[in-house]
Design a protein that fits this description.
Elements (H helix, E strand, L loop, with lengths): L7 E6 L19 H8 L6 E6 L20 E4 L2 E4 L25 E5 L22 H7 L4 E7 L1 H14 L3 E10 L6 H11 L3 E3 L1 H5 L2
The structure holds pyrazine-2-carboxylic acid and zinc ion (ZN).
Zinc ion binds next to loops.
């Protein structure tokens, strides 16, 4: 019952324990996305996942900046960086994808945030806006032109990925109820405004299931 042909892909962003209740950087109600994703994933022949994948000494962790607390911001060479609680450390349970995700057809897992000195919210481009993850080239090589995005968190990794998808020439639509947000200092409203301005579409999973 694949609804979408080979020119479309579902991009599942950071559906990891680290962003679920009990994780290092818990997103409220984050685990509610799992059953929604499991309902929509069978519509897609192509599925790609991302995994936030930090070394323990990563620059985005408040713990690596003495005297700083989580959710403060610092200036880095590439711009402003939010300091996060330690999350998704490489090889830990916190970095694992949720066990209940059922996407057996998934074809690629893009790991990001593994350079110690650069964060990467986006699945496409690291925060220095120069270092590519290789995802755009992979999708283009496979003839994929349309992306549907879901995962965590709406206002960080999903939004940055959707914006970069548009910048790289892809059609991009966020599946709203298959995402949850952090919403730090108005970040969610800003993310939706930025996505709208960039031509990112929005759809609900129920509408998607009726396509
Ligand atoms: C994310 C903050 C830090 C995300 C990842 O997946 O949205 N947010 N690392
Ligand atoms: Zn991270």
């Amino acid at each position: 019952m694949n609804t979408f042909d080979d020119s479309a892909a579902l991009l599942i962003v950071d559906a990891q324990y680290g962003f679920m209740p009990g994780g290092g950087l818990p997103v409220a109600d984050g685990d509610a996305i799992v059953p929604v994703i499991n309902r929509i994933a069978p519509l897609f022949a192509n599925v790609v996942l991302t995994q936030d994948w930090h070394p323990v000494d990563h620059i985005s962790f408040a713990a690596n900046h003495p005297g700083r607390a989580p959710f403060e911001t610092i200036a880095l060479p590439y711009g402003e960086q939010v300091l996060w609680p330690t999350h998704c450390v490489q090889g830990t349970r916190d970095a694992a994808l949720h066990d209940d995700l059922r996407v057996p057809q998934a074809q690629l897992i893009i790991r990001k945030g593994f350079h110690r000195d650069v964060d990467s919210y986006s699945a496409f481009m690291e925060a220095d806006r120069r270092t590519s993850t290789g995802l755009a080239a992979y999708l283009k090589a496979r003839g994929i032109v349309r992306l549907y995005l879901c995962g965590l968190a709406t206002d960080y990794c999903v939004a940055w990925s959707a914006l970069d998808a548009r910048a790289a020439g892809f059609d991009a639509t966020v599946i709203e109820d298959a995402c949850r947000a952090i919403d730090l200092n108005g970040s969610l409203a800003r993310a939706w405004a930025d996505m709208a301005a960039a031509g990112v579409g929005r759809i609900g999973s129920a509408a998607l299931l009726n396509t």
